[in-house]
Amino acid sequence: MHRDTHFAHLSDFPYLARVVNAEWLLETTKALKELIPDFEGRLTQKIENRYQETSKILEELQTENKKLRRSVEKLQFQLNQKDEKIADMAVKLDSIEQREFINDVQIVGVEESSSEEQDKKKVLKLAKEKMDVKLKKTDIVAIHRLGKKSSKKTKCRDLVVRFKEATTRETFYNNRKKMVTSKLPN
């Protein structure tokens, strides 16, 4: 590399280069020292602003969290009340269902008929002939078969008989042993 001989280069004067570098360094340091307080002030202000914003957001979130917790507690309380109410209602429903079926008797082995009226006649005949129980047609409130009708003629569905009064049902039920030892009517 060829140097232009008309101009001297700073590296040709090492002492001068150090002085210029030292002066530049002093000036730069002085300028930086003047900038530091301003920079420090702006940085401190920004940090303070961010801190205040964050504190405000945190406070809002804590307030919202408290509201949500109260809301959840209220909902949990309501849910517990509803659960208790459902449990009470289930007990009452079970009791009602038990009372509803208290006058019912399920009879197995009575041959299927083409209608409920014919089934009723069979039960009246069964009670009179096989159980020595005198029933009137009005003593039976309802009568029906359980399950789906089978295509096989050999299988008959159970018969449910609902009596008008519990005493009639008890009399019929207590004489069931007489029915077991005899052949059921057709």
What are its keywords?
186 residues, mainly alpha, Alpha-Beta Plaits, three-stranded antiparallel β-sheet, 4 helices, 63% helix, 8% strand, rod-shaped
* Number of E-state strands: 3
Number of contiguous helices: 4
How is the quaternary structure best described? single chain
- The main sheet orders its strands as 1-3-2
Radius of gyration from the alpha-carbon trace, in angstroms: 51 Å
> Outline, from the CA principal axes?
rod-shaped
Estimate the helix proportion, in percent.
Answer: 55-70%
What is the number of independent domains? 2
User: What is the distance, rounded to the nearest whole angstrom, between the alpha carbons of the first and last residues?
Assistant: 131 Å
The parts where pLDDT drops under 50 for at least 5 residues are none
Order of helices and strands: HEHEEHH
- Fraction of residues in β-strands: 5-15%
Mean pLDDT: 85
Give the biggest beta sheet.
Answer: 3 strands, antiparallel
Task: Please identify the structural class as seen in this structure.
Answer: mainly alpha
